Automatic annotation (TrEMBL), chain A:
Composition bias, Gly residues: 14-27
The organism's place on the tree of life at top rank: Bacteria
Record protein name field: PH domain-containing protein
Domain YdbS-like PH residue range list: 99-174
Region (Disordered), start-end ranges: 1-31
Lyase listed as a keyword: no
Transmembrane segments: 50-68, 74-99
Family matches, as InterPro entries: YdbS-like_PH (IPR005182)
Keyword Membrane annotated: yes
Keywords recorded for this protein, A-Z: Membrane, Transmembrane, Transmembrane helix
Length: 189, 560
């Protein structure tokens, strides 16, 4: 389904040590990263999201500091400066980390995802248990031509999310998953 | 068929012509004046002509033999009346005394007419409500129409009905009626998926329950009924060990102070208590207050347990349901379709566990809490009982020969203990740090003492709980069930049907990755939606997950 985003599995695992389990001897069972990365544009999307959120907080603090009398100014500007630094660092680092970790794969039997950074999660939902497949595009995602696909099962806690997919790829994926799950019998519970 | 509300039928009901003899107990509601007849009781007065009203049930399409519209039991009015009378006494007497302290005349002239108005209002409202509420059971669905100004009609597909619960409080039991709650167990839209009938005759309630739940599914299982567990009065001894005891003790003091505050006597009560206990010194006084609180808590938790669980019975019924019946004053009947059962959870709160007891909860789909008073207890299949009995009941409910909850479990690597100890120490350090900070700011000697007492007492407790939590970790397979155990303050052993697992999650934090640990979560449509094996050895945990639910993670496995 995705041509440009496949089979880069070996390049992304290094920095975080993801995929390294157990004591590391030969023969230890472990999970490999799912095959597909998300779209490269997602890095820009994540980055803008962090900058916008952090920027809004900093802006509020700065505006308050300008409006309020002098005594409070330092106590507003100091956290604003700290927050600005954290935002910039996060905006540079986190999207790259996320891009390395976020993977997805669809086989004939199941959907796999890997998400997170500090806490990494592999999730799997078998086709026979999938209930809904949604694709969602927030305002920022629309700007970058991206979409987020969410796959839910009958469990309250079993949803899989694949963020930052190319818009057309997401549409194809939703279509394909819907077809497959409709063809699979069972009441999914 | 008449899917819409039929004006002719409504008119017929308003003029008192009804189908008679539809309720199983033989009680027929009838009469002319809304309030008068309903209040006058069970004697079947008036003409029970099955003419006009019955005719609308005989249109083509409603092939079921018992498709007549049925009504609620007229004795409901008297139960409501009794309830309202109780409220009037409970609220009126203190109010009356309050006003009578200034003027007896005003007390009588306000309280009595208000009570009379409330009672008369109840008779009218309930009479009209009963008159305007009808239901019928068709071959494929249950229909209910109700409402006076806004007529609502609800149709519930019988395939979707998951639970039929019967409840009867003391007044209802006196008059032999029960409230029937029919629920489809669907998530969201709480009102739309449930139908509550307040109230029908006891026999009619039982009949509805049997009729709606017994769908005679041929799923190959032996359709035999039988008793799974019976109440043992000795179980009462576990009741005071629950968290309810200190909570009730504290609530009692809070209640006294609250009532005193209404009458402006709060400081008086406190002064009176200080005078009374003054001779005992600070430590003695605190001890007396604590002991009294514990005694009240123990008595309260005993009373609560007895009211909830007296005469408890757990049965398997021929229709493929498991049924819990219990209650001393308010009797409840809770049904659970076996088809929806995905496993059981053995719950052992610390106090109960020290006494060697455990509770059994059902892990079932569609067992949504209904927001009423016993929402947490609807899933409980067995109250705190000796561990052996709990294991036996768990196995019996699941139809397993060997109890999955008592299976030998795989221990987790020692690194998991370190995680627990670090977490517990951090939790113990937080309040100590706050106290130390306060002491640094205010330099009060009391805070200094609190700080070191907190540190000295908190650290050993935290360490003990952490080590216990580590020793409780375990996972394994037993027959068709995946078993996972964790927790210290609330130890939980869940046995989850392997084909009830609808997804897997493998989770690792940075620290878990370093130490080769992994938390594996099985998601399911039942219970809380996800059950975890915490901090298992990563490779062993993955192998376990693959054995429990074959092939799910399979394509992602590699050896490295």
């Amino acid at each position: 389904m995705s041509e440009s985003e496949t089979n880069e599995s070996e390049t992304g695992a290094g920095v975080t040590g993801a995929g390294r389990f157990g004591t590391g001897d030969g023969g230890t069972l472990r999970l490999r990263p799912p095959a597909h990365r998300v779209n490269r544009t997602a890095v820009t999307w994540w980055r803008s999201r962090i900058l916008l959120t952090g920027g809004a907080v900093v802006a509020v603090l700065v505006v308050l500091a300008l409006v309020l009398p002098g005594g409070a100014r330092f106590w507003l500007l100091a956290p604003a400066a700290g927050f600005a630094v954290v935002t910039v660092v996060a905006a540079v680092g986190m999207p790259l980390w996320w891009y390395r970790v976020h993977r997805w794969e669809v086989t004939g039997d199941a959907v796999y995802t890997r998400t997170g950074a500090l806490w990494q999660e592999w999730r799997v939902a078998p086709m026979s248990r999938i209930q809904t497949v949604d694709s969602e595009r927030g305002p920022l995602e629309q700007v970058f031509g991206l979409a987020t696909v969410t796959v839910t099962t009958a469990s309250a806690k079993g949803a899989l999310t694949i963020p930052g997919l190319d818009r057309d790829l997401a549409a194809d994926l939703v279509h394909e998953l819907t077809e497959t799950t409709q063809a699979t019998p069972g009441d999914a519970t | 068929m008449t899917g819409r509300d039929d004006p002719a039928a409504t008119d017929a009901a308003a003029t008192g012509v009804e189908a008679a003899g539809t309720t199983a107990s033989g009680t027929t509601a009838s009469g002319t004046a809304a309030s008068g007849t309903a209040a006058s009781g069970t004697t079947a007065s008036g003409t029970a002509a099955s003419g006009t009203a019955a005719s609308e049930t005989t249109e083509p399409g409603t092939a079921a033999p018992d498709a007549e519209w049925r009504r609620l039991d007229p004795r409901t009015v008297r139960v409501s009346l009794l309830t309202v009378a109780g409220i009037c006494v409970a609220a009126g007497v203190p109010t009356g005394f309050g006003i009578a302290s200034t003027s007896l005349f005003w007390a009588l002239i306000t309280v009595l007419p208000a009570s009379a108005a409330a009672l008369a209002g109840t008779v009218v409202v309930e009479g009209v409500r009963l008159r305007r509420t009808r239901y019928r059971v068709l071959a494929d669905r249950l229909e209910l129409t109700k409402g006076v100004l806004v007529r609502t009609r609800r149709s519930v597909s019988r395939d979707r009905i998951r639970t039929v619960d019967l409840t009867a409080g003391p007044p209802a039991r006196l008059f032999g009626i029960v409230t029937v709650k029919i629920d489809t167990g669907e998530q969201g839209g709480s009102g739309a998926s449930s139908v509550s009938l307040y109230a029908v005759a006891r026999g009619e309630g039982e009949r509805l329950r049997a009729e709606l739940l017994d769908r005679g599914r041929g799923d190959g299982r032996p359709a035999t009924g039988g008793r799974l567990a019976t109440f043992d009065p000795r179980w009462v001894r576990y009741a005071p060990l629950s968290i309810v005891t200190p909570a009730l003790g504290a609530a009692a003091y809070g209640g006294v102070l609250q009532v005193a505050e209404w009458f402006g006597l709060q400081s008086g009560v406190i002064r009176w208590a200080i005078d009374l206990l003054g001779g005992l010194g600070l430590v003695g006084g605190v001890a007396v207050v604590a002991v009294v609180g514990v005694v009240i808590g123990v008595l309260g938790s005993l009373a609560l347990f007895v009211e909830m669980w007296w005469n408890f019975r757990l049965d398997r019924e021929a229709g493929g349901t498991v049924r819990v019946r219990r209650g001393l004053l308010t009797v409840r009947s809770i049904s659970l379709e076996e088809q929806r059962l995905r496993g059981v959870e053995l719950v052992e709160p610390l106090g109960v566990r020290t006494a060697g007891a455990a509770r059994v909860d059902a892990v079932a789909t569609g067992l949504r809490s209904q927001g009423d008073e016993d929402k947490g207890d609807r899933k409980t299949l067995l109250p705190a009982a000796p561990r052996g009995e709990a294991d036996r009941v768990a196995a019996a409910v699941l139809r397993e020969a060997a109890g999955p909850t008592s299976a030998e479990l795989t221990r987790h690597p020692i690194a998991a203990r370190g995680r627990r100890i670090r977490r517990a120490l951090a939790a113990a350090a937080a309040p100590v740090a706050v106290l130390a900070g306060c002491w640094w700011l205010f330099s009060s000697p009391v805070l200094l003492h609190l700080t070191w007492i907190g540190a000295v007492a908190g650290v050993p407790i935290a360490l003990a709980l952490a080590v216990d939590a580590y020793r409780n970790l375990g996972h394994g397979l037993s027959g068709d069930y995946l078993v996972a155990r964790h927790g210290s303050v609330r130890r939980s052993t869940v046995a989850l049907q392997r084909r009830g697992v609808i997804g897997l999650t493998a989770r690792q934090s940075l620290f878990q990755r370093r130490r080769g640990l992994m938390t594996i979560t099985a998601t399911t449509a039942a219970g809380s939606g996800a059950y975890s094996v915490h901090d298992a050895d990563a490779a062993e945990g993955l192998a376990f997950a693959d054995e429990a639910v074959p092939g799910l993670f399979g394509p992602l496995f590699e050896r490295g």
